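Internal QA ticket QA-208
Title: Verify multi-chain structure generation after dependency bump
Assignee: T.L.

Test input:
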Amino acid sequence: MGTLLNVVVFLPLVGALVAAMLPKGEANQHRTWALVVSLAVFFVSLGLWFGFDPSRGAPEFQFETNVPWIASLGIGYHVGLDGVALLLVMLTTALAPVVILSAWKEIEDRPKEFYIALLFLETAMIGTFAALDLALFYVFYEAILIPMYLLIGVWGSENRVYATVKFFLYTFAASVLMLVAILYVYVNAGRTFDYVTARNTLQVTPAVGALLFGAFALAFAVKVPMFPLHTWLPDAHTEAPTAGSVILAGVLLKMGTFGFFRYAMPLFPEAALRYRGLIAGLAVFGIAYGALMSLVQKDMKRLVAYSSVSHLGFVMLGMMALTAEGLTGSVYQMLNHGVSTGGLFLIVGMLKERRHTRLISDYGGIAKQVPWLATLFVVVTMSSVGLPGTNGFVGEFLILSGTWLSRLPSAGLFAALGATGVVLGAVYMLTLVQKVYFGPNHNPANRHIPDLSVREAFVLAPVIVAIVAMGLAPQPMLQIAKPSVDRLMARMTAAEQRLREAAPTLRPLVGTEPAAIAFARPPAVPAPAVPAPAHGDAPAHGSH
Amino acid sequence: MPPLLDNPAAAQSYLWAIILLPLGGALVNGLFGRRLGRGNVGLIGLAMAGGAFLLSCIAFAWVAGGTNLHFVGDWWFRVVDPSGRAPISVPWGLLVDRLSGTLLLIVTGVGFLIHLYSVGYMSHEDDAGYARFFTYLNLFIAAMLTLVMGDNLVLTFVGWEGVGLASYLLIGFWYTKEENAAAGRKAFVTNRIGDFGFLLGLFAIFSIFGTSDFGQLSARALSLQPDWVLTSGVFAGWTMRGALTFATLGLFVGAAGKSAQIPLYVWLPDAMAGPTPVSALIHAATMVTAGVYLVARTNFLFVLAPTSMAVVTIVGACTALLAAVIAFAQYDLKRVLAYSTVSQLGIMFIGVGSGAYAAGVYHLMTHAFFKACLFLGAGSVMHAMHDDLDIRNMGGLWKKMPSTAKTFLVGTLAITGIVPLSGFFSKDAILAGALFSHNAAWPAVGKIAYVIGTVAAAGTSFYMMRAFALAFVGAPRTRTAEHAHESDWTMTLPLWVLAFLSVVALVLGLPAWLVGHHYAELFQQFTNPVFGRAYKVLGIEEHSAIWPYAVAWVVALVPGWLSWQMYAGSMRGFPDRFVAAFPGFFRLVADKFRIDELYEFILLRPVRKVSQGLFLAVDRFTIEGIFVNGVPKAVYAVGDVLRGWQNGNLQRYATVIAVGAAFILWAVLAAGGY
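Actual output:
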């Protein structure tokens, strides 16, 4: 079974190597080859999807391969997938062909290098999700920077150099801190980089744990990005070519949230419990802040980029709720954001290809010229604002309800503030739709824009199908995420127990609050200091 | 389809078909409409709405016979936590009881008529627009039916937002006009503000009850003790009554958004930018009543939270009055009707807020008939007047468009509450219900609402008669009015059907003193299985006083007669003199009390300014300016200074060395005292 995952990880790289041998001048050969390779990877990855066993007794990591790589340093080639990693790998393999097809006409300059970079990037991304060895993870994680640097720096627009340097320094500086933390873990976990071993054996004092958690969290928070570490994102998104923006929004940002889910929280659960309020606060602030920033952007891509800050705030909020609902919603929202923001960037890219401008004010009233593009943009917009029936609703609903029902202090306030993002999201997205597509078409340059081509229909069809399918039938994906969510919950609950041994009066931290009706008391009896145990839903009181 | 009629299990399994038919119609017309040709597009749209109506009739027959239909659906999404609990479990379940069954008939029945009307009304559109219109209309029906039939609050919310989407698309149907697109966005965003409240109310209900299923909620609400103190969750330390007040107020914020109540009513008048059939179906007959439906649906929660009921009642009463006053000074026929809708919705909220649930829903029904009739009549007038809706330019249309005029008159008399039209019985059942209600927390609220509501009803009578008189009576005031002609049968047939329904719906609400107990308040009796328990909790008994009806009669007749005299009779000229005497006041009312401008000033502009300010101050200046670029710049600056010393210029090095050596020499010598 392990072979299948290895094939999925390295097939794009092999494809890139083969592409390197193809003649430089044959642009269409490169395009076709990259598409064929990415489609092959997708079809092979379907084997992972159908082969994954999400049942309770199944092993945590499946499709595992564990062989020594640099044995003297304790570095192994250890890969495997749990449910969350599987979902993100599927997101990556599904987006890759879409992205490659979308760049067909956009990239005229050095297509060979472009597609090699994309395929290389795909291996690095899948590897990041599949890695179960900290050193291996770090290698993949950083390897992403190289093709991404090139994608923005070579094929980006006017300000690309500034954006590239900023993107690189931001993420690299933060991940160097993580490297230090990884080395510390290596030393203290018995000189091994193996994630599973380290997770089981690592013993750190609270102070050190907090520092290590901080180092990991900082690296991932930049990647997410969380306020106030987000300012690289609008520049990178805006300057990147469409393919770069889609990959960046669709997959790269999830490495941050995935990093929290896979590394920062399970490795240092006590520290995570201690700082979750702070992170949740930044997340909620980011939801509102990103949305407000989107309101005042004049550049379509920048607007969508800021909306990512808002949406990723939801993901982080759900994660910090530490309820099954919040965590599941968080995982689901990672996928949703990949689909819906990916879709937005794709359509914005199509407009830019036609009109060579990203400024909202250069458009207006083009729905008459491009009815299909307009319709699809509205569909993706509805997904982005979380209309029920689209994927966005399920994620946002689980996150907000999971936060409301959580044991996070002031949970109700967090959920309510988070829900303002639902209102503001509608404001900025519908304003964008109105300014770009509706109203009179005054600009002569907008009179003859061609509508959706057949190729573009193939690019957007998977996005639309995913929006509707994931909106109406989320259960299969939620089931796949369930074992990972349950294990993280168990790990956090165990950490809570350890904390409670030190401080017996600790209020409950992890898990879902039971229905209040089961624990109501007559007003005369003073309520005890510690609420009733939360395990199992006691039956509602009968008629008293 | 005999099994549907014989076997409730079979009937239950067909419930989704009621939703899927129009949804399928929307899909087909949306994807292939432009190629199908307009005949087929209209046929598909009509057939799907008609099919949904037929299936609804079957479902209604079951509930009328006393059998509720409940389709127990598979999970839509469900998260089980490690301890095996799953509070967030949302099934695709549908429930038809006597409340949702009634709504089902209204939505599909009126919906079908308006589809028929649209075949003629929208015939000037090009093929793409025609297909788009029927796509959206079918989509709306599907969403509205989901809202009505969902067996849990989350599914209701799905329909709730779905109708919001349809409304957004249809208001902005002629999107090339800037103001239409803006009106669509305004509607969606205002509704989203309401939905924010709905969501919080929904979460509150989840955290109190651990479910959002209507059946389970109602069962658990029955058993709970309002005075007990909650010890867990967000509401730890609250009483049950307090938590329920929070939850129900949240739901009511949602209802206020959807049903255009203060302070969220501002979107509805602007929504008239949409095609007239849309105004009739969505923004008068069905969607905007969803808030009333929601309060009626969750009556078992509201009755335990008297403060929430008081808020519902008072907000409804104030909205009824405010909108009625604004309607006095409007000249756009559709705007008059829009404010009238806002006002009538307020009346419905007085009903469901003061516990007169059957009366509230009964008025919802009669309003659906006569207001749809009035709007479609306005649409017919609009066609004849070449899209001019200013009632000052009309006049004398009675002779030019007899069907439209007669049905419009029926609608006017019905909404005015002239005996013996249905509006009289439904509106006055509400006002009498409010008068005799006893709110446990705020005892005076029912009587206050009765007074305000009665004044609003008097206003309704005046401005509706004014609109009718100006539009249809007298001599034509413009050439367009002179050459107006009647619309074709697809448009007049629905008018007649709706006018007929506006009259006959009265049999459902005749008072006991008139027809005896057996035939009295048929609708009240019919919905008793749904609302009976709520009445018991509230301690509402039957009342059969005659005097409120007499008051209501006077209130309907006198202002209507006055209005007739002023706009079509001997007192002509008085309105102009009145306007001339109080020009400032009239302007203020005509400008809708400048509430939109107020919102712009206190809400929208600050948000934009704050966003822009934050963008410049935080993102651009603090993070970007100081940290991201400032720190490197400082490093560069220091580097620049230092670099000056190491520029590789040998002569400068030599100079520096020489000067330095001279300085040291001088210092050493000076220090040595030489």
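Spot checks passed. The longest helix of chain A spans residues 324-355.
Status: verified.
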